[in-house]
Amino acid sequence: MTSAQASPATIVEAKGLTKAYGRTYALQDVSFSVTQGERVVLLGANGAGKTTLLRLLAGLLRPTEGSVLLWGTPPWHARCRAQVGVTSHASYHYEELTAWENLRLFGRLYGASNLETAIERALERVGLAAQAREPVRTLSRGMQQRLAIARATLHRPALLLLDEPETGLDAAAQGDLATFLFPNGEETAVIATHSLSLGLTLGRRWVILSGGRVQYDSQTDGEDQARVEKNYQMYVVHGGR
Length: 241
Ligand code: ATP
Prior knowledge:
By secondary structure, this protein is α/β, with parallel strands linked by helices.
């Protein structure tokens, strides 16, 4: 008996994405797709366009040109939002509410199932069980980042869009980041990071941006680690020189 193997579903489809701010091109003509189960790490120097790309994929920014579809639908549609987990530079917590209350509010918004249990598990996973009833304003920066990760993963999103998820985390938490972010081990994710070593650990595919353009994509340009490191040196450390 022969079994035809279905190719993985396309989750992200970006075509000709360009974002201009006046004369500044934050992103120029970026096209790429992400299939189910892929973990794409975005690498690039400050200003390379990583945050812009993630915000476009999340539907938080509209492109100047080009298009983004998630599961074939524009990302700002409510149907997509409920299936996406996001961490960004800002944590967006309600400072006066406790860690638990923040998660409950967010979980209700996105219709997370078995919410009480999901909150408990999420807080436990990121090492915040003891701080569950503390107001967020009393939590350290790293603890607030752990909470941001708990919030992004609470509703078991099918796609994670993560902007520097390691920000503020101590060495132990950085070591546990894969467990924090990918409890099932099969999550699809696009992750921007400034840490090459973390990027190599978290990713299965690596994309390097420079000047708002994709300069290297391991999927098409060879994905052995040495090649990623060589391109990282060229485009991120030495600015393409
Ligand atoms: P970093 O590593 O510093 O976070 P990045 O790779 O995420 O950088 P972006 O934040 O995407 O880079 O910025 C890309 C370019 O777009 C930069 O030149 C930046 O100054 C510009 N830019 C981003 N947001 C705006 C804005 N709101 N107005 C004007 N220019 C912007």
